[in-house]
Design goal:
The chain has 301 residues and is an alpha+beta fold. Helices cover 33% and strands 23% of the residues. The chain contains ten helices and eleven strands. Strands 1, 2, 3, 7, 8, 9, 10 and 11 form an eight-stranded antiparallel sheet that branches. It has a three-stranded antiparallel sheet with strand order 4-6-5.
Amino acid sequence: MSALLAEVTRSDFVESLHHGSVVGLRPDGSVGVAVGDVAAAVLPRSCMKPFQALACLSAGTPLAGPALAIAAGSHTGENRHVELVMQLLGGLPVGLLRCPASWPEDEETRQRLTEPSRVRMNCSGKHAAMLAACVAARWPTQTYLEPTHPLQQKVMRTLEDLSGESVSHTAVDGCGAPVFAVSLQGLARAVQGLVRTPVATAMREFPEYVGGTGHVNTVVMQLLPGVVAKGGAEGVLVLGTAAGHAVAVKVLDGNPRATTAIGLTALAALGYDVSPAKELLSVPVLGGGQVVGEVRVVGVQ
């Protein structure tokens, strides 16, 4: 069963509720936080990206630094992100990217553009890294998104190895790539394994390429050096520390507005100091341009 994780108040009135599940693992692997049905399968959505980047790396792709961070990230489409995506393509035509054309998430950048493009799509770093992996391993590039493609099979095995589970379902993500279902607790175990890899190191060192200017994942990593933060569509979030704490969140209504607050509250419950990011432990609710309430975490301790 899911549990109440957060409530939205407006002028002392509870306006909305967010139900779901959250699990937190201590560095020794034991469960320190378990709220809701943490054994239920979830689609990690963009929380898959660090594992996809790890699979690209193990395929022989020469990824490091910002390039590895953007392969694991959901960038906001700023010019610096596009420049790095083009470098990752290494001369391959942009048309090989199979992610859909999109407007950038960065509003300032969007206002300067006249049309959407594939390289501005938040998943283009991942897709460019996948193409680079195909080149490095001499795998077909045209079919790199097929679930039976050697790269996608490697991604699936990477997630299974780190989560300690077999994938229970294969779906198509918003960008067109396969996304593999595991339990929420299995996803947290996978994150615990991830934090000791070069992918996590790159994410921690270059958080501006995991998200972008003002992106909440980037802000979390800037405020909490050593923490890896990666969100996904439909209310999924993972957090991991260099010491080995791991948190996975799933909000059932798919709204992400409370996920960071929930995840950080769970991380604090594991004994990790999140006070430098205390501003993110709740989300202000506005009325007439003034704060009249908040999105606050309940039931996680």
